[in-house]
Specification:
Blueprint lengths: L9 E5 L4 H12 L3 E6 L4 H6 L10 E4 L5 H15 L4 E4 L14 H26 L9 E6 L12 H23 L4 E8 L5 H12 L6 H10 L9 H12 L10 E4 L6
């Protein structure tokens, strides 16, 4: 057994039906955890069914709209019942809507605020309640929130998204302080992913060209790579492995931290 072994741990990953969330669910399961895939997309059920399993280890799917308190209450209860507890919560669900500040829509602002800030806040709330002493799980654990390199740089076209991901960073640090001061036994950290060519990442590149910031999606991607000392885009595995680290005993003395996984873009 190593400090990265998650055997016996129980995890819930929001936005786990595709992209980074799917990769995180797979990585946590590969490390030995039982995983609950939580998403508004029912395709998450197939993702959960395909996760590697052995012995008595189980995986499950729960439908979750992260902006709904009632959904969170039900999803946490279902997750604990399905896999026998909760030790790890990954608040990954998020949306990005590209726009110049001069053209931004109030409805788009509200949507990003609701999913990225409200959804993450509710996740932290119900994760702490479940994992703290006397909670439905009650054994402590780790919460990993997914912020973005956009929280640390000024990249055009993503002002509101950047603001929401900056908020995720602040939420993480205050939640870590509260958890520590109140003896919850739950570490709270966040990851700042760089650009990854998932459906969301590809959509961002296309949108950048559409609003006239770059001549083509390829130019937008090249601009990101040019700002990245590692000289490439990130991969799903790059981000998922960082989540496994923060969820594991290798990070047992790490809380209230933001981990850049961006190839140096945000330094």
């Amino acid at each position: 057994m190593t400090v990265f072994d998650l055997t016996g741990r129980r995890a819930l990953v929001t936005g786990g039906a595709q992209g980074l969330g799917e990769g995180m669910a797979r990585a946590l399961a590969a490390a030995g955890a039982s995983v609950v895939v939580a998403d508004i997309q029912d395709s998450g059920e197939q993702i959960a069914a395909a996760l590697p399993s052995d012995g008595d280890r189980k995986h499950a799917f729960t439908r979750l709209d992260v902006t709904s308190e009632a959904d969170w209450e039900r999803a946490i209860t279902e997750a604990i019942a399905a896999v026998g507890g909760l030790d790890i919560l990954v608040n990954n669900a998020g949306i990005e809507i590209t726009s110049l500040i001069t053209e931004v829509s109030p409805d788009d602002i509200r949507r990003m605020l609701e999913v990225n800030i409200l959804g993450t806040t509710l996740g932290i709330k119900h994760g702490l309640r479940a994992m703290r002493p006397g909670g439905a799980a009650g054994g402590g654990g780790a919460i990993v929130n997914i912020a973005s390199v956009a929280a640390t740089i000024a990249f055009p076209g993503i002002s509101v998204y950047s603001a929401t991901k900056s908020a995720v960073d602040r939420l993480t640090r205050v939640a870590a302080m509260e958890s520590g001061k109140l003896g919850y036994g739950v570490r709270v950290n966040c990851v700042y992913p760089g650009l990854v060519p998932t459906a969301m990442g590809a959509g961002l590149a296309n949108d950048m060209a559409t609003i006239g910031l770059f001549g083509s999606p390829d130019e937008a991607v090249a601009a990101v790579v040019d700002q990245t000392p590692s000289g490439r885009l990130g991969t799903v595995e790059d981000i998922a492995d960082a989540v496994v680290f923060l969820a594991s005993d290798a990070a047992r003395f790490v809380t209230g931290a933001g981990l850049p996984v961006d190839g140096g873009m945000g330094m």
